Each structure stands twice: as C-alpha cells, then as structure tokens.
C-alpha cells in the first residue's frame, strides 16, 4: 500500500516540508494500521523542523514530522488485543504526518463517543499535557490562583477551562483584544494583554500582592524570568514550551527568597508506557464528559497546506488547536 506523507531532508523553514509517497507494509507484531482522518500540528513539530530544542528524540534525516493523529484502524497485527478493525482511535507516535501508518498498539487509545476524530487529532496531545500539568506535577487546589501564558492558544484554552473546573482563579495573558475574548470564553477569570500591560504588576494586583500558586508557561524566553515575580512563596513555574525561544541560564538565586520551584517537563515521559497513556486519557475523557473541558478545533488545513499551517502557527497567527485533514 502507498500513503501520502510529509518529510524534511534538513532543518529549516516551512519550505523544507516535502510531500512524498511511502510504502506501508501490513502491520507487524504488536502493531495496528491506521488510516488517519486528522493529524495534529503542534509547536513541537516546529521545534523539530527548525532543529531547536523540544520534546523530540534526535534522529537521522529524512524525518516524517508530527506525533499525534486520529482515525480508524484498517488492520490489526499479530499479538494485538483490545483493538479491532473499524475502531476510532487516537495515536501518539513520531511520524504522524502520514495518512496511513503502522503504530504500536501501546501508543493507541480508543476514542470515546464524545471526542470526534478531527477533535482528537487536533487536541489529544494538548489535553494529555494539561492533565499532567494540572493533576500530577503540582495538583491544582480549590482557591489557588494560577497564571496561564498564551491563554488563547491551543494549550491555553484547555488549561484555563480545566483549572477553573478544579476551583482555581485563572489569570491568562494574551497578545490581542480578539484573543482576550477567546480566553474569557474558555475559563479565564481575568485576562491581561501583555502588549498593553505589565503582566507582572497586573498579576500581583489581581492577587492582592500574594502572587499565584503556579505559572504555566508555553512562551519561554520572553516571559519565564519575569514570571518568577508573579509567584507566591513555594510557588512553581512550569515551562512546557518555548514559542519565543529557549529559556537559557538564569540566576538560581531568583528562587531563594520565596523558596520557588521550576520545572521543564515533557509529555513523553508522562505517557511513556501504555498504562500511563490510558490513565491520562481516562482523566481527560472524564473531564470532557463532565463538561469541564471543551475540546475544539481552532483551525483546519488541508494536508497539502501543511507549509501554510506551519507558517501561521510559527507566527502566532492561529488561535486554538490546528489540524491537518487528509
């Protein structure tokens, strides 16, 4: 069988994305073959394309980008149980920019009825990231105040909704008036336009000088160090993305006065085995089923328009989750 795929031969800009045809053999031991109907576009794909630091393993060229998708199982390999032909599933495995692909069954999760394939392809990676950020690294407690950078982005809208459902007061930062409305509609109690306001001063004002329990930072270089000033004593700054560039060396003494904590996690380690992946998926499905989190597609691009999807995401011109539709 032949399948359309997108690869890069070297690091660089969106023009490095090449559209190719690849041969897909029958699924092997422990694998399922999936025809994807939706392929997620995440900033991790930008990192990998550019060759910058990010949550991906070094590998040799050519590289098929991407790590998440959704579709239906077309064939089941030997030794696979609990998955069947025709089943609607999401998958997490490098090489997602490929329409038909073989994936280890351990990296596949059945989709509940409340999460359609296009939504899953766009949002599951972000939803599972939100799960470990909110529930495992520093569990949000009722009454906590939290600061979410890029609150109108694909990750931000999930984090804000879920944090509010957990009882937090949610403060979000955005870069435009249009994005302010998106953030308010997705869980934020307060929204700060960082282009017009000093987000540190405004966060402290909104918390009566106490600061927030946690900062969720997907921006990186431009905001990480100033965000430390937004934290209450024993607060934690979690940098899980670097849209503005990597956070480079900073003075550890900045943490000393208030006994602050910092963390640089990646989803890969939290879903490293099948049990952990299924556990995270169960929690996300429960939150969606309860109405605490609305998973939505922000923008759809045709598979053939992947370069434009990368350009817009990299330029921060997108709102919400981005998905390629084969």
UniProtKB/TrEMBL annotation:
InterPro entries documented for this protein: ADH-like_C (IPR013149), ADH-like_N (IPR013154), ER (IPR020843), GroES-like_sf (IPR011032), NAD(P)-bd_dom_sf (IPR036291), QOR-like (IPR047618), Quin_OxRdtase/zeta-crystal_CS (IPR002364)
Chain coiled-coil ranges: none
GO CC annotation, single: cytosol
CDD domains reported for this sequence: QOR2
Boundaries of every Enoyl reductase (ER) domain copy: 12-324
Keywords carried by this UniProt record: NADP, Oxidoreductase
SMART domains from the UniProt entry: PKS_ER (SM00829)
Pfam families: ADH_N (PF08240), ADH_zinc_N (PF00107)
Gene Ontology MF terms in the entry: mRNA 3'-UTR AU-rich region binding; NADPH binding; quinone reductase (NADPH) activity; zinc ion binding
UniProt xrefs under PANTHER family: QUINONE OXIDOREDUCTASE PIG3-RELATED (PTHR48106), QUINONE OXIDOREDUCTASE-RELATED (PTHR48106:SF13)
Name this protein carries in UniProt: Quinone oxidoreductase
Biological source species: Cupriavidus cauae
